[in-house]
Amino acid sequence: MKFEDFKDDDCVVICNLTSMPHVKDVTVQQCCLCGRDVWFAESSKPRVEGRNFYIVCSPCAAPHVKNEVIEMPTDEQLRDSAKSLGIPFEVAKARMQKILDARNKKVKFNKKAAKFEEN
């Protein structure tokens, strides 16, 4: 499988390699692109329920996500991250929202600009 094979409505869960730190309640899964072991957090399960999803390691995802809109993590995912980082949930959520809003605005603008140039 290649990153380009994913459909627009597929859910891609980007996970850290098992050589990286992790949050509590994880299982070891494999990246669907390279097969390396990754941490899949229990808090990610609600995000993928009822959806076609793929687990991708961060090194495989990194070159491809610069032109993709990234969904806001669920509150459970953010609670996991906040606890792991030792910061309040509200702070983690506000920081992530600010980062993703700015990033996704830029991605959407660039996609519109590319379509405009095509025409």
What does this protein structure show overall?
By secondary structure, the protein is of the alpha+beta class. It has one domain. Helices cover 41% and strands 17% of the residues. The chain has helices at 45-48, 58-61, 75-85, 89-118; strands at residues 11-15, 26-30, 37-41, 53-57. The chain has a two-stranded parallel ribbon. A two-stranded antiparallel sheet has the order 2-3. Strand 2 and strand 3 (37-41) form a beta hairpin. Helix 3 (75-85) crosses helix 4. The protein is globular. The termini are far apart.
Write a short abstract of this structure.
The chain is an alpha+beta fold. Helices cover 41% and strands 17% of the residues. It has one domain (3-118).
The percent range for strand residues is 15-25%
Total strand segments: 4
Q: In which range does the helix fraction lie?
A: 40-55%
Q: H/E element string?
A: EEEHEHHH
End-to-end C-alpha gap: 32 Å
> How many alpha or pi helices?
4
Number of domains: 1
Can you list the strand order of the major beta sheet?
1-4
- Whole-angstrom Rg: 15 Å
**Regions with pLDDT < 50 over 5+ consecutive residues?**
none
Notable traits:
two-stranded antiparallel sheet, globular, 119 residues, 4 strands
Please render the helix and strand layout as text:
Blueprint lengths: L10 E5 L10 E5 L6 E5 L3 H4 L4 E5 H4 L13 H11 L3 H30 L1
Parallel strand pairs: 1-4
Antiparallel strand pairs: 2-3
Helix pairs in contact: 3-4
